[in-house]
Structure formats: C-alpha cells, structure tokens
Amino acid sequence: MMVELPDLAAMTAFGTKIADLLQPGDVVALHGGLGAGKTTLARAIIAALGHEGDVPSPSFTIIETYDPPAVRLPLVHADFYRLEHPDEAEEIGLDHYRIDAALLAEWPDHAGGFAHEPACLTIALEISGDGRKAIVEPGADWQSRIP
Ligand code: ADP
Ligand code: MG
User: What is the complex's ipTM, to 2 decimals?
Assistant: First the structure.
C-alpha cells in the first residue's frame, strides 16, 4: 500500500499508528536514500512508544536502545549504513539486542535485510514534492494486525 506523508505532522501520525501495532520481535525496515525521512519516522515511533526527549540518530553509534518503563516495549533503533558487510551486524550483537525487543532498522539491506522475516514491516520512503511517500509491505505477522 502507498501512504502520502506531505509534512512532519503526517509523519508523526504514521509513526503513532505503527507504534500502536508494534510487538517484541518485530522489525520495521526503513528503506530510502539520504534525507528520505527514515530517522524522522523512527523518532515518531519511539516518541509514540513513550520516550520523552531527544532521539539521537544512530548513524555513528549504529545502535541506540530504549528500555521500559520509558517506552512501552524494548526497542533497538539501528542505522546500518556504516556496516561494510552484513556479518558486522552480528559482531555488534544485533541478535542479542533483539531477544525481547522490536527493531527499527535504517539501511536494512546493509545488515542482510529482514524482509524474509514474517514479523518485518517493510517501508520504503521517498521524496514526493515537499513531502514524502511510503510504500508499505507488511510481512505475514502484520497482515492480521493492520486495521
Ligand atoms: P534519513 O534518516 O532518511 O536520512 P531524515 O529523517 O534525517 O532522513 O530526514 C531528512 C529531512 O527530511 C529532515 O529535515 C526532516 O525534517 C525532513 N522530513 C522528513 N519527513 C518529512 C515529511 N514527511 N515531509 C517533509 N519533510 C520531511
Ligand atoms: Mg537517518
């Protein structure tokens, strides 16, 4: 499905909808080039899950984690852009972080991709006029959840 996101308010509303459906074990795979809005959407999801205050971009740290009670469920926000090989995702302990968390992944292809996982919600963001649009492909686990 395609979702028009003409401004930041639309991005916030979209992030809130995703946050309301998010469960441990899920992946939200955020595709799109530099400036497409991946971090903006991740920030909207993290805020809707309860986090107050800044959400640093993980572009340098690669992984930022958020834990209850500040958020409704454990969360990993990752930006895999700087990985040179998918194996590096394991070297930084991705599987460990994911044990009981949901994963918001920017540049998911740099970590090998997650679309084969039934719990993956694939979102491809692109610039559309002054705003953005998203092509959304829900994995099997998401299909029954989407209202
Ligand atoms: P990415 O993480 O994909 O590189 P960012 O989330 O950092 O991109 O967003 C880049 C810029 O795009 C930011 O200045 C942000 O405010 C703007 N932006 C994000 N989403 C939208 C939108 N739906 N409409 C207009 N501007 C947006
Ligand atoms: Mg980003």
Answer: 0.99
pTM of the predicted model over 0.90: yes
Top mutation candidate among 4, 7, 11, 40 for ligand 1, by most atoms within 8 Å of CB: 40
Strand partners, 125: 134
Structural domains in the chain plus CATH codes? 2-141 (3.40.50.300)
Pocket of ligand 1 (CB under 6 A): 5, 7-8, 10-11, 32, 34-40, 106, 131-132
Residues comprising the chain, all counted: 147
7-57 per-position pLDDT tens digit: 999 999 999 999 999 999 999 999 999 999 999 999 999 999 999 999 999
Instruction: Give the distance (Å) from ligand 2 centre to CA of residue 141.
Output: 26
